[in-house]
Design a protein that fits this description.
The protein has about 450 residues and is α/β, with parallel strands linked by helices. It folds into two domains: about 25-190, Anaerobic Ribonucleotide-triphosphate Reductase Large Chain (Alpha-Beta Barrel), CATH 3.20.70.20; about 215-430, Anaerobic Ribonucleotide-triphosphate Reductase Large Chain, CATH 3.20.70.20. Helix content is about 45%, strand content about 15%. It has 14 helices and 14 strands. The chain has helices at about 5-15, 40-70, 80-85, 90-110, 125-140, 160-175, 220-230, 235-265, 285-295, 305-320, 340-345, 350-360, 375-395, 435; strands at about 20-30, 70-80, 115-120, 145-150, 155, 160, 185-190, 210-220, 270-275, 365-370, 400-405, 415, 420-425, 440-445. α13 links the parallel β10 and β11 (about 400-405). The longest helix is centred in the first third of the chain and has 30 residues, at about 40-70. The radius of gyration is 21 Å and the shape is globular.
Length: about 450
C-alpha cells in the first residue's frame, strides 16, 4: 500500500510529540551452516557470520533513521537456538565459550543484544539442553549482550515441569553470580514461544525461518495514551475504535521501516510486532494508558477490563494495517520498565497475584518482576508454573522474566538503569506448594489441543 502525505505528517507528529519509535529492528540469522567438528573453526564461522551481518544492520539502520526521522532505538540479532547446533560440542565450558563469541560478535559491530542462547524443551531435554541449562549462571554473568530463553511448553505438547523445577535453582544461581542480579533480566522462560519474536530477552531465529529475516518491533504507548486522553467522554465501544485506528497508523510506520530496511539488507521481511512496549520515561507507560482510560492505578479493580480492551483494539488495528503481524504482538507490562507500573507497586495498588491475572489477557506474562532474594527455589518454580499454565490452557504465548534480587527484601528497590529501569521488590505468598511442584513430570496437553 502507498503512504499518503497526510499519513507521513501524522506519523511525524507522533514521533515528535508522543514518543512513537521503532523499538527494535532484529535480524534473524541461521547458524546451522556454521557447524564444524573443529570447535575453533566453528566459533570462527559463527563470529564472522554474525559480525558481518550485524555491521550491515547497524549501517543501514542509521541511514534509514536519518531518512525518515523515526527513532530506531535498538538494533538486535537473533540466532538459531544454540542447543541445536552445539550437540557435537556439548560441554559446559564450550557453551560458555560460544556465548562469549556471540557477545563479542555483536559488541564489535555495535549491536545492542543477541538472542537465541536457548533451547526448545517442551517435551523433554536432550543432553545438550541439560548442559546449556547448567551453563546459564556462567553465561549470563560473564557476557553483557547475550540473552537466553527456554521454551518449556506448548498448547500441543503440554508443559515440562522437570525443567521448571530446575529453573528455580538456576535463577537463584544467576542472581548470585551476576552483578545486581542483572543476569536474570537477560533470561526468559516461555510456553508457545514464537519463532519470529524481535524483542529481548526471548528472541530466537526459529528452525522454520529462512537463512535471514528482518523483524520489527514498534512502540507507541505515548501515542495511544494521547488519543485516549483526547476522548474522555466516549463509551468503551467508541474508545476501542479510537485505539484501533491509532494502532493502524503506528503499525503502518513499522511496516514502512521494516520493508525498506529488509530491501536495503537484501533479506526477507519477516513481521511487524505491534506490542505496546513501555520504557522508563514519563510518556512511554502502558500503566498510564490505563490511567487515561479511568483506572486510578494499575492493579485497581477494572484493570483487567482495561488491559483486555486495549489489547483487543491494538491487535485489530495492527492486523488491518499489515498482513505480516507476528512475534508477541500484545501489551507488555514489565514492572521495572514502566514508571506507572513501578508507582502502582510502590503505592500498594498492584500485587504479584493481580499482575498474574492481568497477564491472562495480555502478553507476555510476568515481565521484569523482582522478588526477595531469599525466595526458595521451589517457590520461584511454582510462580513460573502458575504463569505458564495460563498459556497452556488458553493457547497463548506466556513468559516469565523474574529476578530474585540478592540481598533485597519486599519493599526495597533494585536499580538496573537504561531501558531496564528500576524494580520495586514485590512480596511473594508466604505459603509453599513445594509438595506439588516437586512431583515433576509433564503437564498434559489440554483437551482443546485435539483439533485434527
Amino acid at each position: 500500500m502507498a503512504f499518503t502525505v497526510d499519513e507521513i505528517f501524522e506519523t511525524a507528529s507522533m514521533t515528535l510529540y508522543q514518543g512513537l519509535d521503532i523499538r527494535t529492528v532484529t535480524l534473524g540469522i541461521n547458524l546451522k551452516d556454521c557447524v564444524h567438528s573443529d570447535f575453533d573453526k566453528f566459533k570462527k564461522n559463527v563470529y564472522e557470520k554474525i559480525n558481518s551481518s550485524s555491521k550491515r544492520l547497524v549501517s543501514k539502520t542509521e541511514k534509514l533513521e536519518i531518512k525518515y526521522g523515526i527513532p530506531i532505538v535498538n538494533e538486535r540479532v537473533s540466532v538459531t537456538p544454540i542447543s541445536l547446533i552445539m550437540e557435537p560440542h556439548s560441554s559446559r565450558e564450550k557453551f560458555v565459550e560460544m556465548a562469549k563469541v556471540l557477545d563479542e560478535a555483536v559488541e564489535d559491530a555495535g549491536v545492542d543484544f543477541v538472542g537465541g542462547f536457548g533451547a526448545l524443551v517442551q517435551k523433554g531435554a536432550t543432553a545438550a539442553d541439560e548442559v546449556l541449562l547448567d551453563s546459564l549462571p556462567d553465561v549470563l554473568s560473564e557476557t553483557e549482550r547475550a540473552c537466553s530463553f527456554l521454551n518449556v511448553g506448548s498448547h500441543k505438547t503440554g508443559m515440562n515441569l522437570d525443567v521448571i523445577i530446575k529453573l528455580g535453582k538456576v535463577l537463584k544461581d544467576i542472581a548470585k553470580k551476576s552483578e545486581n542480579s542483572i543476569g536474570c533480566a537477560k533470561f526468559v522462560v516461555f510456553v508457545n514461544a514464537p519463532e519470529d519474536n524481535p524483542f529481548m530477552a526471548g528472541a530466537y531465529h526459529g528452525s522454520g525461518e529462512p537463512d535471514f529475516s528482518l523483524n520489527v518491533g514498534i512502540s507507541g504507548p505515548g501515542v495511544i495514551r494521547g488519543v485516549v486522553e483526547e476522548n474522555k467522554d466516549c463509551d468503551l465501544t467508541e474508545l476501542s475504535e479510537v485505539i484501533k485506528r491509532t494502532a493502524f497508523k503506528t503499525t503502518r510506520a513499522g511496516e514502512l521501516i521494516g520493508r525498506e530496511l529488509a530491501k536495503e539488507l537484501d533479506v526477507p521481511f519477516g513481521i511487524v510486532d505491534i506490542s505496546l512496549a513501555p520504557s522508563p520515561v514519563k510518556n512511554d507507560s502502558v500503566a498510564r494508558i490505563l490511567g487515561a482510560m479511568g483506572v486510578d492505578r494499575a492493579g485497581a479493580h477494572g484493570s483487567t477490563l482495561a488491559v483486555a480492551l486495549l489489547m483487543d483494539a491494538v491487535k485489530k488495528g495492527g492486523a488491518m494495517a499489515s498482513g505480516n503481524v507476528g512475534g508477541l504482538s500484545g501489551t507488555f507490562l514489565p514492572v521495572s520498565e514502566d514508571l506507572g507500573m513501578v508507582e502502582a507497586v510502590q503505592c500498594g495498588a498492584l500485587s504479584l497475584d493481580k499482575l498474574e491475572s492481568l497477564t491472562s489477557v495480555c502478553s507476555v506474562g510476568l515481565d521484569m518482576v523482582a522478588i526477595p532474594g531469599d525466595t526458595p527455589a521451589s517457590k520461584i518454580s511454582a510462580i513460573i508454573a502458575d504463569e505458564l499454565s495460563i498459556g497452556i490452557i488458553n493457547n497463548k504465548t506466556e513468559g516469565v522474566r523474574i529476578i530474585p534480587a540478592q540481598g533485597k527484601k519486599a519493599g526495597d528497590v533494585i536499580e538496573f538503569g537504561g531501558l531496564l529501569g528500576k524494580a520495586p521488590v514485590m512480596k511473594v505468598n508466604d505459603y509453599s506448594s513445594e509438595g506439588l511442584i516437586s512431583r515433576g513430570g509433564r503437564f498434559p496437553s489440554p483437551l482443546l489441543s485435539l483439533k485434527n
